[in-house]
Amino acid sequence: MAGSQVFLKFQENKHMNEKLPKEIIILGMHRSGTSMLSGMLDRLGIAMGEDQPGRQVSNPMGHFEDGDLLSLNELILSQAGGSWDNPPTAAQIQNQAAPLDDRIQKIILDKRHANQDQHWGWKDPRTSLTIKLYLPYLRNPYIIWSQRDPDSISNSLRIRNKMPEHEANKLTEHYQRQIIDFLRDHPELPVLRISYQEMIDQPEFWISKVVNFLDLDVDEAQLLKAAEFILPQDDIKRERKILWWNSVLLLPIRALRKFGVIKKKQS
User: Fold this and answer.
1) What whole-number distance in Å separates Cα of residue 134 and Cα of residue 228?
2) How far apart are alpha carbons 228 and 15 in whole angstroms?
3) Measured between alpha carbons, how far is 96 from 261 in angstroms, rounded to an integer?
4) Backbone angles phi and psi of 12, in degrees to 5
5) Are the C-beta atoms of residues 58 and 160 closer than 8 Å to each other?
6) SS3 call for 49
7) pLDDT per residue over 205-250, tens digit each?
8) How far is CA 253 from CA 8, 139, 242, in A?
9) CA 171 – CA 156 distance, rounded (Å)
10) What Rg do the C-alpha atoms of the chain give, in angstroms?
């Protein structure tokens, strides 16, 4: 079935779709708080994907990205002639709909089957560029848009990627424009916009907004875990330092083990 036909079917069955498990897609620029949102949803019982990258210095609490969808997004951008930091045009990305149609449809069906009656979703900032290719195969999509001050994004990219400020600003503007255009073209989609800074300042308030937006049935323990996950900046910096020091301290040990100087303990 062609993508446009699938989308028309989605429109016809809109009210029926409301009874189906929700498919939550987090959109937003890199370094805009998408990982924090995805981790919070994970603690609220949303299946946010398998094969997730672990904690790293750049994201000390974890990325909470679905490895399959991350790989597919990288493939889409690559075949369109670009990458996350050198994005193709919207037209170039759309041209990948036909050659990658079967693969996109299969991955959505596989995720839906794996989660059965459970709400599920994914986070990968690249989806801000590729979301139009996925939409025809989503039955009950809900969009959460993570927003952050452009200067803060630019500063974060400068630290993590050594990206010049003007390039970071241009890249941020491009991602923002793609999200705005997508939401303008699809006003039927339920959307919740969340400010990264406001989420940190008022976690309980924004967690309740998310729970109400998605109409989730959660218990007190899940709410507490979600709130504890949204750490203040000082705590995030402390976690980042711990991860960095661990990597530095373990590096010589790993090297010695590699060359057989130190052997692993037998259990």
Assistant:
1) 32
2) 35
3) 50
4) -65, -35
5) yes
6) coil
7) 999 999 999 999 999 999 989 988 886 545 544 544 444 445 545 4
8) 58, 50, 17
9) 13
10) 20
Task: For 167-211, write each residue's pLDDT tens digit.
Answer: 999 999 999 999 999 999 999 999 999 999 999 989 999 999 999
179: nearest Cα among 35, 38, 70, 25: 25
Q: Which of the listed CATH numbers 3.30.980.10, 3.50.50.60, 3.40.50.300, 3.40.50.1580 matches domain 3-231? A: 3.40.50.300
Helix axes 34-43, 203-214, angle to 10 degrees: 70
Place of tokens 């990219």: 157
62: left (phi over 0), alpha (psi -120 to 50) or beta: left
The span from the CA of 208 to the CA of 72, in Å, is 32
- Provide the β-strand partners of residue 25: 122, 143
As a residue count, the chain comes to 267
- Through-space distance between the first and last CA atoms of the chain, rounded to whole angstroms: 54
Distance CA(208)–CA(226), nearest Å, equals 10
Q: Are 195 and 184 in contact (CB under 8 A)?
A: no
Higher pLDDT, 4 or 157: 157
The answer to whether the CB of 139 falls within 8 A of the CB of 17 is yes
Residue 133 clears pLDDT 80, i.e. is over it = yes
The answer to whether 91 touches 82, Cβ cutoff 8 Å, is: no
Residue 139: pLDDT over 50: yes
Read off the pLDDT of residues 45-64 as tens digits, 9 standing for 90 and up. 999 987 545 544 444 454 57
Record the tokens describing residue 199, joined without a space. Answer: 């989420």
Residue 195 β-bridge partners:
147
